[in-house]
Write a structure and sequence with these properties.
There is one protein chain. By secondary structure, this protein is α/β, with parallel strands linked by helices. It is 26% helix and 26% strand. The chain has helices at residues 44-50, 128-131, 134-148, 165-176, 188-196, 225-230, 254-259, 272-285, 300-309; strands at residues 2-6, 18-22, 32-41, 62-63, 67-71, 77-80, 83-84, 98-99, 111-115, 119-121, 156-159, 180-184, 201-203, 213-218, 232-240, 263-266, 291-296, 315-319. The strands form four sheets. Strands 3, 5, 6, 9, 10, 17 and 18 form a seven-stranded mixed β-sheet that branches. Strands 13-12-11-14-15-16 form a six-stranded parallel β-sheet. α3 crosses α8. The longest helix is centred in the middle third of the chain and has 15 residues, at 134-148. The protein is globular and about 55 Å long. The model has no long low-confidence stretch (mean pLDDT 94).
Length: 322
């Protein structure tokens, strides 16, 4: 079957390790099911995999891709929860949790196999392309906002780095839930798009906000860390799920953190139950993922390059070639 896969690790130029071509189809195994992929979406996790983060040389070649929507063997339209081993289903109780492509082949292929427990019904209101955007970036944003930030309708939230998948999702979800959303971006066009999506205001990185916020959604890391901490009200919460600009800020702001009793919460992906809630939320409210580009799988390299360049706004979706 045709697939996009990591053939080698290149920490400095990750796309050098990306190959497109034939790979073996999934083999049947007890407790697992094979899904015919109708759409899959890119995440920064895929670029990090090509750099060898979470993916060892001994696992190569590895089909990339965490997210997908498709059709199972019984003809049901489904969405995949990409955290394997979270429940022990299909792998046993002793295997640590992992994300697709760290231990098992991913979704950038004609077919993918996952534990049957990891398959959820796709709401008919969502297209395959829309549903494929949800299991990683949108699920991460959902958990950051509604589980780890603990915000309520009327609260204010700053989203750093508008344009990325998690940041875009947080703006849309927060607005739909009655939150006052603010965003930052170095790019003027992305700031304008953030406002179109529901942000009350969008600013250059480091700019003073109209008010201190109840929570900050942080995925950028070192470049925005100090601004994130300084933007919080006393007792506010900073939720971090990534560090695309690096994980070592020049100033940790420790004095401000303890003096104002701020909460710093790490957040990774989300649970199957949260994904089910997110799917229901989107179906009921009309919220839909923001899609930057849809490409056939044989043009996956273009999608990877666009993500690496940072020029995207929303998600890049891959669909079967031909």
């Amino acid at each position: 079957m045709f697939a996009a896969y990591a053939a080698r690790i290149d920490r400095d130029t990750p796309l050098n390790g990306l190959e497109l071509g034939e790979r073996p189809a999934p083999e049947a195994r007890p407790g697992w099911t094979t899904v015919t992929v109708r759409a899959a979406s890119l995440n920064h996790h895929d670029l990090w995999s090509l750099r060898g983060v979470g993916l060892g040389e001994d696992k190569l070649p590895m089909i990339l891709g965490c997210d997908a929507a498709g059709v199972d063997a019984d003809g049901n339209e489904v969405v995949l929860h990409s955290v394997i081993g979270q429940s022990g289903h299909g792998v046993g109780p002793d295997e640590p949790r992992s994300i697709l492509t760290e231990r098992y082949p991913g979704t950038f292929a004609e077919q993918v196999s996952v534990p049957s427990w990891n398959v959820l019904p796709k709401p008919p209101e969502l297209s395959f392309e829309q549903a494929a955007c949800l299991p990683t970036a949108w699920l991460t944003a959902y958990r950051m906002l509604f589980t780890n930030a603990g915000v309520r309708p009327g609260d204010s939230v700053l989203v750093q780095g508008a344009g990325g998948g998690v940041a875009t999702a947080a703006i849309v979800l927060g607005r739909a839930a009655g939150l006052r959303m603010y965003a930052t971006s170095r790019d003027e066009a992305k700031r304008a798009r953030a406002v179109e999506l529901g942000a009350e205001g969008a600013y250059e990185p480091g700019a003073r906000l109209p008010r201190r916020v109840d929570a900050v959604i942080e995925t950028v890391g070192a470049a925005t860390w100090s601004h994130s901490v300084k933007s919080l009200r006393p007792g506010g919460t900073l939720v971090i799920s990534g560090a695309t600009s690096g994980d070592r800020p020049s100033h940790a702001e420790l004095t401000r953190i303890f003096f104002l009793e701020l909460r710093i919460v790490g957040s990774t992906m989300g649970s199957k139950d949260e994904l089910e809630d997110l799917l229901s939320f989107c179906a009921a409210t009309g919220v839909r993922p923001v899609i930057d580009t849809v490409l056939p799988l044989d043009r996956a390299r273009e999608g990877f390059a666009r993500m690496a360049d940072g020029g995207l706004f929303g998600k890049i979706v891959l669909t079967p070639t031909g």
